[in-house]
Amino acid sequence: MAGHSQFKNIMHRKGRQDAMRSKLFSKLAREITVAAKMGTPDPNMNPRLRAAILAARAENMPKDNIQRAINKAAGAEGENYEEIRYEGYGPGGAAIIVEAMTDNRNRTASDIRSYFTKSGGNLAETGAVSFMFDRVGLVEFGPEAADADAMLEAAIEAGADDVASSEDGHEIYCDQTALNEVTKALEEKFGEPKASKLVWKPQTPVAVDDEAGEKLMKLMETLEEHDDVQNVYGNFELSDALMQKMAE
């Protein structure tokens, strides 16, 4: 998924996941609580909650933490989070979408705007760049789930639109309305997926030079580390040389 996938791969290879695990668990718990509060606390009847639990399990979040986050949705003491999407342009003119959950809109907006400005980019109005992306469903499996041909065949049979397989695993894309059905069909064949979620997929990834690429990755990392930010997407592509350099 262009900048988004490249960023995730680099962070994984750099071993950043362990250092950020506590913060990651907090973000995963927030999504579980919000999903449970918006629907039923039963993941079999609440696709968004089920997706949030899958994401938590993929990061080895303890069962007690997951259940505590679900229970929090029923309690009166739970915080009220507002979901906000920010859009803007990063270095090199790359389009970036930031999804956040916050209990203080002004604080979060101020922080996100400053990150864009310091990177040489700028925050824009909602809708300014999202037209360059498609809102689609994404199901992820590890490379051990199946070979590329078997995954492609099963995905097409399940109603998916596209499959991207690599040494890191399989990314299956589908219409956002078909995500639940595609996930269940693939789960029956390959077991529980690593993720099942709605994402912003760039329509036409834009190649950026290495100088802009380094600044973009730094911006993506800064955004990801913010407590209120849940997801960050970009429509840029980095050179293989820069990918290799940043993964070291």
Summary of the model, kept short:
The chain has 248 residues and is α+β, with helices and mostly antiparallel strands. The protein is 48% helix and 23% strand. The chain has a domain at 3-74: Orthogonal Bundle (Arc Repressor Mutant, subunit A), CATH 1.10.10.200.
Q: What does the model show?
A:
This protein has about 250 residues and is α+β, with helices and mostly antiparallel strands. The chain has helices spanning about 1-15, 15-20, 20-40, 45-60, 65-75, 105-120, 150-160, 180-190, 210-225, 240-245, and strands spanning about 80-90, 95-100, 120-125, 135-140, 160-165, 170-175, 195-200, 205, 230-235, 235. Strand 1 and strand 2 form a beta hairpin. It has a domain at about 5-75: Orthogonal Bundle (Arc Repressor Mutant, subunit A). Helix 3 packs antiparallel against helix 4 (about 45-60) and helix 3 (about 20-40) packs across helix 5 (about 65-75). GO terms for molecular function: DNA binding. One of its GO terms (biological process) is regulation of DNA-templated transcription. InterPro entries: Integrase-like_N (IPR017856), TACO1_YebC-like_2nd/3rd_dom (IPR048300), TACO1_YebC_N (IPR049083), Transcrip_reg_TACO1-like (IPR002876), Transcrip_reg_TACO1-like_dom3 (IPR026564), YebC-like (IPR029072). It holds the Pfam family Transcrip_reg.
